[in-house]
Write a structure and sequence with these properties.
Blueprint: H1 12-20, H2 24-41, E1 46-49, H3 54-66, E2 72-75, H4 82-89, E3 94-97, H5 103-109, E4 114-115, H6 117-128, H7 132-140, H8 169-185, E5 188-190, H9 199-208, E6 211-212, E7 218-219, H10 227-236, E8 258-259, H11 269-276, H12 278-287, H13 290-296
Parallel strand pairs: 1-2, 1-5, 2-3, 4-8
Antiparallel strand pairs: 6-7
Helix pairs in contact: 6-7, 11-12
């Protein structure tokens, strides 16, 4: 059931781009309609996946403007900025989850997350699979014109890297605690994802719309928003938000994450962390060994 992209729509991408140009008031109205639909469908058994970042802060305000009793849930991975943790604790009705494994335990057991979640998974599969068919797909691509599933040639040298690589960090530190919460509470999530964030999220919206009732069950009622809409909403409603943004940081995910760092201009996230959070930087680079990993993929730190 996709109420956002009609089945007879000839170009869903154009329709999405059109909605991304809506006024803020129009976006608020449409988001609230999707929030109501999700809330009513699950008889109020819902929650907001709350990261402490600006997007989920706006999402939480949108949801609670309609349903003040809806809980927020934060997964304390141990990798968040100290400022994020402080801000989360200042928000009412937040359940804090803690994963069973630490980041150190995950990287020791499964490997470091680098380049991207998708490529880390492909590299992990290439290194661990016993299937010649899957290995062939990871090295050469599927037998189609897109050669889908192939590890990009420039990253294939990582198959023989002297350290383990995997995509499992996000699952054990974020996804699994949330899944356990959902199983125990019977609640379904609102998530502050926006299709402008990545091609994968754009396709997710085109496929399922804001509210997905099968497969990956979740509501993403801000899917057609843009970053400037988030800041306009914060200003319009005089919302409190995490101080980390005022310190010049534009991303508030896991501090120690190496996904995408190779694409950043200098100073990259680790070079900036060295200045703003020197003790955490020293722990990451020297104690957890991230320095050697970054050096291996030619990323300055």
């Amino acid at each position: 059931m996709n109420k956002d992209i009609p089945p007879n729509c000839e170009n869903p991408g154009d329709l999405l781009r059109e909605r991304q140009q809506y006024s803020l008031n129009a976006k608020i109205y449409l988001s609230k309609e999707r929030i109501k639909e999700w809330y009513e469908y699950w008889n109020g058994m819902v929650y907001v996946s709350f990261s402490g970042g600006k997007d989920s802060t706006v999402l939480l305000h949108l949801v609670r403007s309609l349903y003040p009793e809806v809980p927020a849930v934060f997964s304390d991975t141990g990798l968040e900025f100290p400022e994020i943790k402080k801000f989360v604790k200042s928000v009412d009705n937040v359940t804090i989850l803690r994963p069973k494994l630490s980041y150190r335990q995950v990287i020791e057991k499964y490997g470091y997350p680098i380049i991207s979640k998708e490529n880390s998974q492909k590299i992990w599969e290439a290194r661990t699979t016993k299937s010649n068919k899957l290995l062939h797909k990871r090295l050469h691509g599927a037998d189609n014109k897109y050669k889908s599933g192939k590890i990009p040639i420039k990253w294939q040298y990582l198959i023989k890297a002297p350290f383990e690589i995997s995509h499992k960090c996000c699952f054990y530190l974020k996804k699994k605690p949330m899944l356990l919460y959902e199983k125990e509470s019977k609640r379904k999530p609102f998530v502050g994802l926006m299709s402008a964030d990545s091609q994968a999220r754009k396709q997710q919206y085109i496929r399922n719309g804001c509210n997905s009732f099968s497969g990956k069950i979740q509501s993403i009622p801000m899917a057609f928003w843009l970053e400037q809409d988030v800041w306009k909403y914060i200003k319009k409603n005089n919302l409190s938000y995490c101080s980390i943004y005022d310190a010049g940081w534009d991303r508030t995910g896991c501090m120690w994450c190496m996904f995408g760092v190779h694409l950043e201009k200098e100073p990259n996230r680790f070079q900036r962390m060295k200045i703003t959070h020197p003790k955490i930087y020293d722990y990451c680079i020297n104690n957890l060994g991230l320095g050697e990993i970054l050096k291996y993929i030619n990323v300055p730190y």
